[in-house]
Specification:
Keywords: Cell membrane, Membrane, Transmembrane, Transmembrane helix. It holds the Pfam family MFS_1. This is 4-hydroxybenzoate transporter. The protein has one domain: Growth Hormone, Chain: A. It contains 13 helices and no strands. The protein is mainly alpha-helical and 308 residues long.
Length: 308
């Protein structure tokens, strides 16, 4: 996902970057939400094995389309000094009008490989890096906690397995709408204020579900709004962090963006070709999971920091 976010941030114009990144990342929520409804349908007709088979086959079907259609990073190709013809061909696929004789240059200063991770803690970036890490940790703790335990909680309240799966799907399906709204607001107002306010509204919805009794219809609406706010704010962070890397070496931007999201540990950083950093990210993830239990923690850590 960091690679996808970095790629979209590179090609999108500034006036639409927030919306497009959150819209792209909302695909994660759509897939998670539809998974609940699909699993409910499969479980009602087949065994639990069918859900695993479906989840394993679908990515294999999508893979050939990604190989053919997903563009390479133009900035990365320029930094690697690839032939101008190859760079022009990649840009022309996206609507450019370049020739093989076009000379491509980067404005970013060269940075040595040994210093790429240290960039996150230099020149006033340390505070923002730590704040983003903790915000990611806490937000995803809530998201995965609800994804894992919400069906069990709903079933303990008397709902069937199919109803619990569908209501859990509503939590994820609220993410795309929330992501689009957050992205639009981020392009027009203070990004940190929008993200903090959205997290706060999501916290209120979750608290109301815990202290008050609601019918099935009202509970479904609150779950949807909670997902819209929490997932939407989390998607907004995907558009927020690349702004902090705008003046970093493009050869390492994807890896640095992965460092801003160490909550997935080894797999993400391995995609950035930094295995040792991935193991470090996994350790940091443990700290983030412990801290995530603080009420309103997301709001606390994201509110004081503004991008430069």
């Amino acid at each position: 996902m960091p690679n996808c976010v970095t790629l979209v941030a590179e090609y999108m114009p500034e006036r639409r970057k927030g919306v497009m990144i959150t819209l792209m990342y909302s695909g994660f929520n759509v897939g998670s939400g539809l998974g609940g409804f699909i699993a409910a349908g499969l479980l009602s007709h087949y065994s639990w094995h069918s859900a695993l088979v479906f989840g394993g086959v679908l990515p294999l079907v999508v893979l050939p389309f990604m190989i053919v259609m997903l563009p390479e990073s133009a900035m990365n190709m320029v930094a690697r000094r690839l032939p101008g013809e190859q760079i022009a061909r990649a840009l022309n696929r996206l609507g450019g009008q370049f020739t093989a004789e076009t000379v491509f240059q980067l404005n970013a200063p060269p940075i040595t490989r040994s210093s790429k991770v240290a960039q996150l803690f230099r020149h006033g970036y340390a505070r923002g890096t730590i704040a983003l890490w903790l915000t990611y940790f806490m937000g995803l703790f809530v998201i995965y906690l609800l994804n894992g335990w919400l069906p069990t909680i709903l079933r303990s309240g008397g709902l069937s397995l199919q109803q619990a799966a569908m209501m859990t799907g509503l939590f994820q399906l609220g993410g795309p709408l929330g992501g689009i709204l957050v992205g639009m607001l981020m392009d027009r107002a203070s990004a940190k204020a929008v993200i903090a306010a959205t997290y706060f509204l999501g916290c209120l919805c979750l608290l109301s579900q815990g202290v008050m009794d609601f019918g099935s219809a009202a509970l479904s609406v609150l779950i949807f709004i909670s997902g819209m706010c929490i997932n939407g704010a989390q998607n907004g962070l995907q558009a927020y962090s690349p702004r902090l890397l705008s003046n970093r070496d493009p050869r390492y931007r994807s890896q640095l963006d992965a460092w801003y999201r160490p909550y997935r540990g080894y797999p993400q950083l391995h995609a950035g070709r930094d295995a040792d950093a991935g193991r470090a990210g996994t350790l940091v993830d443990l700290f983030g999971a412990c801290a995530a239990g603080l009420p309103g923690g997301d709001l606390y850590f994201v509110a004081p920091y503004e991008s430069r």
